[in-house]
Structure formats: C-alpha cells, structure tokens
Q: What sequence folds into this?
C-alpha cells in the first residue's frame, strides 16, 4: 500500500517562466520507512542526546567555543563566521524559476534526488497550472528550474504526472561521480545472437505491469511486528509533530493569454538576465493589484519598453 497523502504544505510560492506566475504549494511525495531508533538511558528511559566533545581530549565543548571550519587540505582549515555564512546564503524569492525546457529523456536517472508534489494555490492558479502541465505532457519536455527551500538553493526538474506536477530536486553536476575507471564492459564486448535471444525470452517470461505493492521491505516489517508486540505490553508515547514552514502568500495570476503573448514576444532565444526577469515579475505582480484600467495601461507600457530595450540574440558558436 502506498503511504498516505501528505496535506501539510512544506513550501509556498510560485512557478515562474517568462511573465507567467503560477501560485503553488509543495507537498512531500515520499515517506521515510527506514526504522529510526532513539538513544535512551536504560534505567530512566529518558532520551540521550549527541554531546559535542573535543575528539582529542574527550571534553565537552561549550557552544561559544565552537566555530565552523572548511578543510582545504589534510588538517588545514579555513574558519568562516556565522555572518559570512549567512551573507553567502541564497535569497529566497519563493519562486520556482524555470530557466529552460529540455527533453525528459536527456536527464540521467543518477541526477534524480527528491520528489515533491506540486499543487496550485487558490482558484487563480488552476488554469495556468493545467496549461503548463498539459504543455509539458504534449511536448515531452520538462522544466529545469532553480528554487530555494529552507535557505538552500536546489536545481530541480518540473515534470507532469497524472493530473498534476512533480518537482524533482536534482543533484548538481559536481555531485554526480564520473564513471571512468569502473569495470563496465568495453565497447568491443559482444554477445552472441543465441545468448541475446534466450535473455530476451527470459525477460518476456518475467515481464509484467509495474505493481509497487508487490514489493516489501521485509526487514522493516519484521521489526515493526516485534515493536507492535512489545507495544501491547508496555504502551506507546506519541511525539509532537514538527511545526510547518511558514511562507508569505503569493500574488494571483493576471491575464494568462496576455502574459504568454508578452513572454513569447520578448523571447530572443537566449535566457534573459536575472535582473530583467525580476523586474518583469514585479511588474506583473504590481499590475495584478492595480485596477483594471491601470492593468491595461501597464501592459501597453511594458510591451513598448520591451520593444525598445530588446537586443538581438547572441549567435551561438557552432560546436
């Protein structure tokens, strides 16, 4: 059986591409099933925490005497202050900024990290959300985006699934190891036609539909059965849930057709600078809060400014 749906909102923001701004929320798409044990004192059954000690002396260290250092070489550290670390943290824009659309098959599975279900926030996000999902499904593309969650910047892939979208956090390129040196078969390694035919017959004989319920974590099931048996004898103690992550509400979507038209008109084939994208987003949000006549005037002004400031796309060098 699949894990129950998580209704807790982990993140609230918007999907942004061009001038389109779709308010959404993120919900956990996975559930941790690994057994987690707490350290307890045998006599009193109270929790035992991890004590910060000096590994050389074994003495406990007070918090004010602990600093963060990055090891540049063996036993050679550079110390960073909390203010220096804070200054380097990415600014949270509460947006999933799509920077490009690529074929789904081009992304190797080793880049996949952690999935989240994406849900439209409010009635105003239903139509543009459905439009983006349907467009991705028809084109076979996925949106490659950057997003900041809990002060950490992530690379992510926005992909359609059923009637919704999934945001799959991706690993950065320097987090994926090279395959050089692995004992993979060489290119000149061949198999006979007879061997290939028998292997294909075996695959066909074992083929079936994907049914995840058929597979179980037997180790976890045995431990859980033992826990339940002992719980009947000694009772249970419930832990308080972690508080949810608060986030500011996002602006509603303005005229979707006009935003798409303006986004296409301003697209020169190259990625727009971050400053221009931010200015366009602020303009769209401001126009949303203005009366209807001002919205139209702002749209005409924005279109005129875009035509006046548009630059021809830089020619790509042929590889």
A:
């Amino acid at each position: 059986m699949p894990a129950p749906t998580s209704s807790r909102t982990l993140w609230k923001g918007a999907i942004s591409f061009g001038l389109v701004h779709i308010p959404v929320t993120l919900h956990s798409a996975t559930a941790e099933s690994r057994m987690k044990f707490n350290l307890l004192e045998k006599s009193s059954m109270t929790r035992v925490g991890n004590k910060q000690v000096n590994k050389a002396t074994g003495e406990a260290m007070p918090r004010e005497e602990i600093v963060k250092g990055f090891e540049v070489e063996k036993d050679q550290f550079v110390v960073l202050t909390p203010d220096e670390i804070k200054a380097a943290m990415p600014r949270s824009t509460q947006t999933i900024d799509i920077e490009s659309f690529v074929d789904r098959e081009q992304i190797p599975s080793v880049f996949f990290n952690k999935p989240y279900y994406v849900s439209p926030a409010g009635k105003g996000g239903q139509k543009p959300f459905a439009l983006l999902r349907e467009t991705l499904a028809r084109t076979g593309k996925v949106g490659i985006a950057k997003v900041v969650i809990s002060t950490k910047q992530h690379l992510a892939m926005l992909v359609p699934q059923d009637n919704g979208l999934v945001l799959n956090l991706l690993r950065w390129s320097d987090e994926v190891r090279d395959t050089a040196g692995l004992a993979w078969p060489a290119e000149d390694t061949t198999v006979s036609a007879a061997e290939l035919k028998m292997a294909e017959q075996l695959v066909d004989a074992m083929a079936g539909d994907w049914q995840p319920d058929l597979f179980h974590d037997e180790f976890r099931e045995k431990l859980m059965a033992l826990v339940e048996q002992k719980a009947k004898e000694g009772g249970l103690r419930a832990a308080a849930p972690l508080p949810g992550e608060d986030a500011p509400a996002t602006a509603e979507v303005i005229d979707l057709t006009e935003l798409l038209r303006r986004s296409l008109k301003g697209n020169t084939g190259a990625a727009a600078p971050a400053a221009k994208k931010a200015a366009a987003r602020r303009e769209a949000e401001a126009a949303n809060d203005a009366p209807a006549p001002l919205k139209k005037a702002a749209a005409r002004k924005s279109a005129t400014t875009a035509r006046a400031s548009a630059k021809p796309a830089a020619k790509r060098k042929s590889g």
Q: What stands out?
A: Residues 142 and 159 are 5 Å apart (CA to CA).
